[in-house]
Structures are given as structure tokens and as C-alpha cells.
């Protein structure tokens, strides 16, 4: 028997199951005229009061006896099951309705423990509240219990216990116990709850019930046997899936067809979960529709990652089979995020965040696949998110610095210019190179603000070197520009203003754009590049040879410099035993010759050995950049290289 009640347990009172003492009472009626008093042996009456028993002062004894008989008759005839219980918890009197409810004659119930008959000791809170009423410390107690009738059927009963008034000081306090059959009401409540907790289209548990079950699975130990593994080692798994392209089906075939498809998908998911349960003994499986075309399969007490990945594979295989819906044959696929971990220390929110992230990975990786949660990948994502949220304020706080890598003439090894490379002195992650945050800045638009700061700082530094070394040829400064800076800001006006502020000659500024950005230029970007070139600023294509490599663009773009991607230069290595690539050398030689015929200069990136430098020099590269000459260094070190001997490794 089970149910709900109120209050914590107390130790006071007679424990359930204690032997019942005989309950009798000597009742003396008012003496008849000229006759002796009559003594009856009778059980106490639950509704009798002192005024009824002894009669009101100066009242008619016959009237009191008649009133007592009326109370007893009403008690016995009442359709509401009732009983009188003494202070020790024994039934003193029960009416026929209570006997009928419990399937036992009312007379047989006398002397029985009420808590045993009605399962009032089934849990601590109910037992304590019941005993408090028996001891006179509480005015009322009500609970709902599930009772089993002797004929085998179950019923829900609402039990109310209230103290009876009017008992004499010589008698033990009694309480009136009433029992109402609320099975119909309970069934209605359960039906309403089922409707509230289930999706009307698929009949699956909805989002509310799913999270209720998830919270319960993470809070309630699945093991009750001490010989089995402890809660500390319990595990939980989740397959979170989303149908690929479901919106297109809704838009083209209508929501009615879409709903039929969702119901069919739900049936296949349920089959997959049941098959998994038959293969792997353990906890429950719950299939739920979380909304739209999103479903989840919760595996309580999972056997490990392998079980979850096998389940994900079976789901994909099941959904890949065509669906026949009212004469229409449809095919769908799904992306699934799989999470499996220990239940200890896991929260519903944390598990769902991990599942949602993994589902996003599955879609980003190509859809129609499952992806397992990867803590390292997630840590990278979290770091990336942290960088994104703090990037804009970091520019304002001055957390960025510039380092400069020399650009050296291949023919004489003399320093010709430098490339400005931005670094982020992050307070948490340390010094971050550009590849850790530039893409983020491009995505959220902060590259415009950051790029403007880099351009101004680099030009100011180039002008300072020029003023500090008036007898040496001035160095040109090369600054990377993202294509979004061309689209989202007035780059031409920014450059003109910064050159005017710093008094740096336009010919000493070189702007680098990647090949993929430049080769697709048209309209506004192309006009901006042309205006910058007309101003005297040099335009360089960075990483040339790895993007579109559409040579036709070179004839109409205002490009001054091609920077060969380091992947080609690596094919020139001899010193470390690496076999050189004749194809790379041929490609580089052809690109250099083409560039020179178009009036462009060529810079080779990633020059690391003297052998590479020598071959690039023979091919005709104009400038080189790489660790052979120097890594990116602080501006003070660049100042020491100006006018010094050739930078040869």
C-alpha cells in the first residue's frame, strides 16, 4: 500500500502491531424511579459526549438515552466509512460502510490497529502526523492512501482523522476516522496528468515529463541492493536527435503529413529503445519528443558508452528506411548527439547542454550521423565562447600588442620591411596568437575595431623607426586586413586618416588580404582596393596558391605583391633528409616568372633553412620571411636590426 500524506515521524505512541487490550466500558444509566441502577457492558460510542452520556444538568434522562440511540443509528447507517479510534490507535467502533470498504464485518474491526488497516504507518511522515492527532497535539490530519480490497482490486482512499470533543477526563481521548473512496477522482487526475505530460501527435512523453524523469534519474539511486554497485558508479546516457530537413517536408507537403511522419518516427524510436533494453539489462529507457522535430532517448543506469553508440547506430539505420505515409514514400535522416557519463555530479542542465552541443557537432560534421560528446572539443568550444565574449572589451582595455617579423631581401639579406602580427595578452589564457581569435573577431564584427587599432599602432611604429634611423632606408610595414573590414567599415577613409595622423608615406604601407578574400572581390571591395592603390598603398595577396588561384583576377586587381604560401616553400627542404618536391619547385618558379611579367614582386613565406633561401633566390623571389631570419619579435629588437649586417641563417 502506498500514498501521500503530511508530517515527519515521531516516536510517541503505540507502535503498529502491538497487541490490543480488551476495550470495554461500564455504562450506568440514570436510575429508574423506585428501581436499581442498570449496568450495561458496551463498547464506547465514537459520537457520544458527556452531555449525552450523563444528560444535561437537570435534563431528562430519557431524552439523553434517545439522543444516544439516534447518534448510534446515524453512525451505523452513514454511507461514509467511519470509525472511532482510541488514544492507543485501536478501533473502538466501526460502521458498516467502513467494514464494507475493507471487506471485513464491522464488528471484527473492533480492537484492530487502525494504522494497519489503512496503511497509516507506511511512511514516516504519515505515521508521525497520525500519532500527533492521537496524542492531542494536532487538530486534523488528512492523507491519501492506496488500499487493496480483499477481492484483489485497488482503490484510492482519502483518510481524515480529527479529535472528538466532549470526552470525559476519565476516558482516553478518541478520534474520529473517516475514509472516502476517491478512486474516480484519482483516475481523472491521472488522465489529466497524462494529457499534460504527453505529446498529442506522437503520444510520447513531452519535454516536461522528460525533464521530470531526468531529474529523478539523477537524484534517485537506481540500486537498492547493497551488494550491487553504489550510486557513485551509476551511469546515465542520452541520445538527442533532430530530423534533418524536416522543415522542408512541412513546408512542401503540409503539417498533416509532417505530423504523420513524426508519429512514424516516434514508433521506430520506441522500437529501437525496446530492442536496446532487451539486449542490455539495466535501467529504464524513455523516448520523448522535446518539441518540433527533436527527440530524446534517455537510458538510465547505462552499461557504458558502447551501449549508447550502438543505440545511436540502430536509430540511424531505422530512420534511413523509407516511410510510407498515406501513399507517399518519404525518406529522412537524423543527426544525433550522444552523451554518456557517470550520474554522480551530473545535473539535468549540464547533461542537456552537452547533448545540445554534440547534436550541433553532428550537424556541422555533415548531418545523417551520430557524434559522441568530446570533453576536449567542448573545452575548446567553451574557451572560444569565452574569448568571443571578452574580445571587444579587451581592445578597449589595451590587452593586445604587436610583434613584427622581418621581410628580408633574398638577393642581399637586407631588412626591407616587417609584417605586424597581433598578440592577445589574455589575463586567463596567456599570450594568444592570431589564429586563436582573429576568426572569432571576423564572425562577431569586432575585427573592424581591432583591425583599426592594429593599423594605427603599426603605422605609428613604422614612422618611429623612420625618425629614429634617418640615415637608413625606411622600412615598409605590412598589415593583415580581413575582408569584413572592407565591407563593414570605410577602410579607405581609415587608412587615409591614420597615414595623415602618423605622417607615414603611403608607399611604406602594405595591406595583406588572403587569396580567397581578394579573388572574390567585386563591387565595393574592388573599388576600395583600387582607391587604396591609387593612394600609393601596396596591396599584397597572402597565402597565394592555396585558394582559388584564378589568374584572371590578377589582370584587374590592383595587386602589388604575391606572398607564396609556405606549403610550397616546404618542398624545397634538403637539410633534414626530407626529399624535395620537384613539382613544388616548378610551380613556384612558374608563379615567380608570371608575377614578374605582370610587374608584381614575390615574397616567400616560411623560409626556415639556408638551402631553401638559396633555391628561392635562384628562382627569383624578391623577399623572404621565416624563422631563418627571425621569429616575430618586439619593436625594440627590430630597431636593432635596422642597418645591421644581412640577415642570413
UniProtKB/TrEMBL annotation:
<protein>
    <submittedName>
        <fullName>Bifunctional diguanylate cyclase/phosphodiesterase</fullName>
    </submittedName>
</protein>
<dbReference type="InterPro" id="IPR052155">
    <property type="entry name" value="Biofilm_reg_signaling"/>
</dbReference>
<dbReference type="Pfam" id="PF00990">
    <property type="entry name" value="GGDEF"/>
</dbReference>
<dbReference type="InterPro" id="IPR043128">
    <property type="entry name" value="Rev_trsase/Diguanyl_cyclase"/>
</dbReference>
<dbReference type="InterPro" id="IPR000160">
    <property type="entry name" value="GGDEF_dom"/>
</dbReference>
<dbReference type="InterPro" id="IPR035965">
    <property type="entry name" value="PAS-like_dom_sf"/>
</dbReference>
<feature type="domain" description="EAL">
    <location>
        <begin position="384"/>
        <end position="646"/>
    </location>
</feature>
<dbReference type="InterPro" id="IPR029787">
    <property type="entry name" value="Nucleotide_cyclase"/>
</dbReference>
<feature type="compositionally biased region" description="Low complexity">
    <location>
        <begin position="7"/>
        <end position="22"/>
    </location>
</feature>
<dbReference type="InterPro" id="IPR001633">
    <property type="entry name" value="EAL_dom"/>
</dbReference>
<dbReference type="InterPro" id="IPR035919">
    <property type="entry name" value="EAL_sf"/>
</dbReference>
<feature type="compositionally biased region" description="Basic and acidic residues">
    <location>
        <begin position="40"/>
        <end position="51"/>
    </location>
</feature>
<feature type="region of interest" description="Disordered">
    <location>
        <begin position="1"/>
        <end position="65"/>
    </location>
</feature>
<dbReference type="InterPro" id="IPR000700">
    <property type="entry name" value="PAS-assoc_C"/>
</dbReference>
<dbReference type="InterPro" id="IPR000014">
    <property type="entry name" value="PAS"/>
</dbReference>
<feature type="domain" description="PAC">
    <location>
        <begin position="141"/>
        <end position="194"/>
    </location>
</feature>
<dbReference type="Pfam" id="PF08448">
    <property type="entry name" value="PAS_4"/>
</dbReference>
<feature type="domain" description="GGDEF">
    <location>
        <begin position="234"/>
        <end position="375"/>
    </location>
</feature>
<dbReference type="InterPro" id="IPR013656">
    <property type="entry name" value="PAS_4"/>
</dbReference>
<dbReference type="Pfam" id="PF00563">
    <property type="entry name" value="EAL"/>
</dbReference>
Amino acid at each position: 500500500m502506498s500514498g501521500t500524506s503530511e508530517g515527519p515521524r515521531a516516536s510517541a505512541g503505540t507502535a503498529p502491531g502491538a497487541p490490543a487490550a480488551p476495550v470495554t466500558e461500564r455504562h450506568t444509566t440514570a436510575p429508574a424511579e423506585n428501581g436499581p441502577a442498570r449496568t450495561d457492558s458496551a463498547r464506547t460510542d465514537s459520537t457520544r459526549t458527556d452531555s449525552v452520556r450523563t444528560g444535561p444538568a437537570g435534563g431528562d434522562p430519557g431524552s439523553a438515552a434517545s439522543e444516544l440511540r439516534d447518534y448510534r443509528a446515524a453512525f451505523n447507517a452513514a454511507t461514509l466509512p467511519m470509525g472511532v479510534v482510541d488514544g492507543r490507535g485501536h478501533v473502538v467502533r466501526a460502521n458498516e460502510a467502513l467494514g464494507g470498504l475493507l471487506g471485513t464485518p464491522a464488528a471484527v474491526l473492533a480492537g484492530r490497529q487502525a494504522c494497519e488497516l489503512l496503511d497509516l504507518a507506511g511512511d514516516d511522515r504519515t505515521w508521525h502526523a497520525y500519532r500527533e492527532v492521537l496524542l492531542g497535539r494536532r487538530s486534523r490530519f488528512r492523507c491519501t492512501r492506496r488500499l487493496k480490497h480483499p477481492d484483489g482490486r485497488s482503490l484510492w482512499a482519502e483518510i481524515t482523522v480529527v479529535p472528538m470533543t466532549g470526552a470525559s477526563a476519565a476516558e482516553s481521548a478518541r478520534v474520529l476516522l473517516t475514509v472516502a473512496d476517491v478512486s474516480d477522482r484519482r483516475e481523472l487526475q491521472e488522465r489529466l496528468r497524462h494529457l499534460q505530460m504527453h505529446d498529442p501527435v506522437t503520444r510520447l512523453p513531452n519535454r516536461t515529463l522528460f525533464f521530470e524523469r531526468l531529474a529523478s534519474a539523477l537524484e534517485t539511486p537506481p540500486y537498492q541492493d547493497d551488494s550491487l554497485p553504489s550510486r557513485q558508479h551509476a551511469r546515465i546516457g542520452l541520445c538527442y536527435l533532430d530530423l534533418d530537413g524536416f522543415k522542408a517536408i512541412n513546408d512542401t507537403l503540409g503539417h498533416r503529413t509532417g505530423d504523420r511522419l513524426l508519429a512514424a518516427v516516434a514508433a521506430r524510436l520506441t522500437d529501437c529503445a525496446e530492442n536496446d533494453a532487451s539486449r542490455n539489462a539495466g535501467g529504464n529507457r524513455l523516448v520523448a519528443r522535446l518539441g518540433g522535430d527533436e527527440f530524446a532517448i534517455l537510458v538510465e543506469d547505462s552499461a557504458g558508452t558502447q551501449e549508447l553508440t550502438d543505440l545511436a547506430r540502430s536509430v540511424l539505420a531505422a530512420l534511413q528506411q523509407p516511410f510510407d505515409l498515406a501513399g507517399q514514400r518519404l525518406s529522412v535522416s537524423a543527426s544525433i548527439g550522444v552523451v554518456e557519463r557517470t550520474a554522480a555530479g551530473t545535473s539535468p542542465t549540464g547533461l542537456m547542454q552537452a547533448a545540445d552541443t554534440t547534436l550541433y557537432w553532428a550537424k556541422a560534421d555533415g548531418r545523417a550521423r551520430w557524434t559522441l560528446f568530446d570533453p576536449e572539443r567542448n573545452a575548446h568550444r567553451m574557451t572560444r565562447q569565452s574569448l568571443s565574449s571578452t574580445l571587444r572589451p579587451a581592445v578597449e582595455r589595451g590587452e593586445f600588442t604587436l610583434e613584427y617579423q622581418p621581410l628580408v631581401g633574398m638577393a642581399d639579406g637586407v631588412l626591407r620591411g616587417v609584417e605586424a602580427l597581433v598578440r592577445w595578452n589574455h589575463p586567463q589564457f596567456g599570450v594568444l596568437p592570431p589564429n586563436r581569435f582573429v576568426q572569432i573577431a571576423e564572425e562577431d564584427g569586432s575585427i573592424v575595431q581591432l583591425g583599426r587599432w592594429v593599423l594605427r599602432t603599426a603605422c605609428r611604429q613604422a614612422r618611429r623607426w623612420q625618425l629614429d634611423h634617418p640615415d637608413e632606408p625606411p622600412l615598409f610595414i605590412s598589415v593583415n586586413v580581413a575582408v569584413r573590414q572592407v565591407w563593414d567599415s570605410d577602410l579607405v577613409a581609415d587608412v587615409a586618416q591614420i597615414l595623415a595622423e602618423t605622417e607615414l608615406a603611403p608607399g611604406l604601407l602594405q595591406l595583406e588580404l588572403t587569396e580567397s578574400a581578394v579573388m572574390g572581390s567585386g563591387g565595393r571591395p574592388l573599388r576600395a582596393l583600387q582607391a587604396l592603390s591609387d593612394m600609393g598603398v601596396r596591396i599584397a595577396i597572402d597565402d597565394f596558391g592555396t585558394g582559388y588561384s584564378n589568374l584572371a583576377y590578377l589582370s584587374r586587381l590592383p595587386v602589388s605583391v604575391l606572398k607564396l604560401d609556405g606549403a610550397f616553400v616546404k618542398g624545397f627542404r634538403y637539410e633534414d633528409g626530407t626529399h624535395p618536391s620537384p613539382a613544388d619547385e616548378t610551380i613556384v618558379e612558374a608563379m615567380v616568372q608570371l608575377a614578374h611579367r605582370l610587374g608584381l614582386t614575390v615574397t616567400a613565406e616560411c623560409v626556415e633553412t639556408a638551402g631553401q633561401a638559396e633555391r628561392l633566390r635562384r628562382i627569383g623571389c624578391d623577399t623572404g620571411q621565416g624563422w631563418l631570419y627571425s621569429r616575430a619579435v618586439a619593436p625594440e629588437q627590430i630597431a636593432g636590426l635596422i642597418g645591421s649586417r644581412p640577415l642570413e641563417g
